[in-house]
Amino acid sequence: MGKTEYQHKVRLKKGQVIEVPIRRIGINGEGIGYHQQQVVFIDGAIPGEIVSARVTQVKPSFVRAKLIKWKKKSAYRVEPRCPVYHQCGGCQLQHIDRRMQRRLKRELLEEAFVKYTRLSTIPIEPTITMDDPWFYRNKAQLPVSMIAGKVVMGMYSASSRRLVDVSDCLVQHPLINKTLQTARDISEKLGISIYDEKKHEGVLRHLVARISFATGEIQLVLVTRTKTFPQEQAFVAEMCKQAPQVKSIILNHNPNRTSLVLGEKNRLLWGKEKLEERIGDLVFLLSPRAFFQLNPLQTEKLYDEVAKVAHLTGTETVVDAYCGVGTIGLWLAAKAKRVIGVEVIPDAVADAKENAKRNGIENAEFYTGQAEALLPVWAGEGLRPDVVVVDPPRTGLHDALIDTLLNLKVPRIVYVSCNPATLAKDCDRLLRGGYSLKKVVPLDMFPQTAHVESVTLMTREDQ
């Protein structure tokens, strides 16, 4: 839309009440509609509804508004189970029936490909869902704060730094909730100094807990500003007494002013250094900073889908370009000739090597570094991967890695994504470089949230 055309539109004003038909859902779970040709974002609105809303923010390209009442309410609207759902920023879709959640997540992927590629037909399959969409998360990392003389642990409300107590979260494993409640209570009882982010003072910043669904054991991490933890022995003794499910207590030192939760240095206070988890027949050892899928029940479905689209026959060389602790690469190793994993976090690579050894897998090797730097070197030495699997962060693939994939003309690329927009943008570059989009499979890894995971297969025929 040109500037002159935009100026002819009637500009909405803050505080104005408008009526908006909701057309689709946004990546943050908000309802999206149009009023006088202006895009309007409304939290809590569902596609198909017509709502009255008060304008709260006016920007050149969009408007935000707060839902006041419904002129037409969706048949898929349900009452959220969580008592603090409307205050907490953790979930976005508890007010939507799970059948509609499944459909909307598929549509998020489809809309991203329509927006960022020139494809007229997008091969998107139905969303793979969970049987029970509650209590599925195996890890929580919650900030703590001192509020009115009490130690409060929770999630920040959406678009704010207001901490909401979510100690009984309905998407976390119940033992995670119990463990974190116990750690908070002990910290308060012992008078542990709580971190003040404005002053950058105090000790305890976050409480982090991860559970093994296979064993029921829990790894507890205390994230501190300081290298030492006051009353360390007393804290460990109380945790062992009150929370027998905890088998590992680790101090993570994060001294910086940062939004990152974990620092780079760990110190074992008590118990095991690593947590053992199982996916299918494989055993994985996890250090505190190692990435591992947050929903073990859906992870097996995810990896099965990766194996299905990779279509291995036993003769292929597979590169796992964001291998983490080796989960995907080791899952594929039984059907591949050779697996090469690449990861930038040294601790994760060490875990991956240990995981391969523990599972008796001898055709998988793992390296520390960036795939975009190592792949060209290996190609110069004669390596020609048949399949490259990528599972990048939300920011998507590094430009240099896309260039490398295009230069190597890898026959099959399997893209595991947690962000429809960056997936579609990256796929567009690959499409323009000679690849074809064969399949996109949505997976609901995080029910009640707006997040959608997906497995995408891209191939090229000039091999």
From TrEMBL:
Pfam families: TRAM, tRNA_U5-meth_tr. It comes from the Bacteria. GO terms for molecular function: 4 iron, 4 sulfur cluster binding; rRNA (uridine-C5-)-methyltransferase activity. Residues 11-69 form the TRAM domain. GO terms for biological process: rRNA base methylation. The keyword Iron-sulfur applies. CDD domains: AdoMet_MTases. The active site is at residue 418. S-adenosyl-L-methionine binds at residues 293, 322, 343, 391. The keyword Magnesium does not apply. Keywords: 4Fe-4S, Iron, Iron-sulfur, Metal-binding, Methyltransferase, S-adenosyl-L-methionine, Transferase. It is an enzyme of class 2 (transferase). Coiled coil: none annotated. InterPro entries: MeTrfase_TrmA_AS, MeTrfase_TrmA_CS, NA-bd_OB-fold, SAM-dependent_MTases_sf, TRAM_dom, U5_MeTrfase_fam. Its EC number is 2.1.1.190. NCBIfam families: rumA. Belongs to the class I-like SAM-binding methyltransferase superfamily. RNA M5U methyltransferase family. This is 23S rRNA (Uracil(1939)-C(5))-methyltransferase RlmD. It comes from Thermoactinomyces daqus. The gene is rlmD.
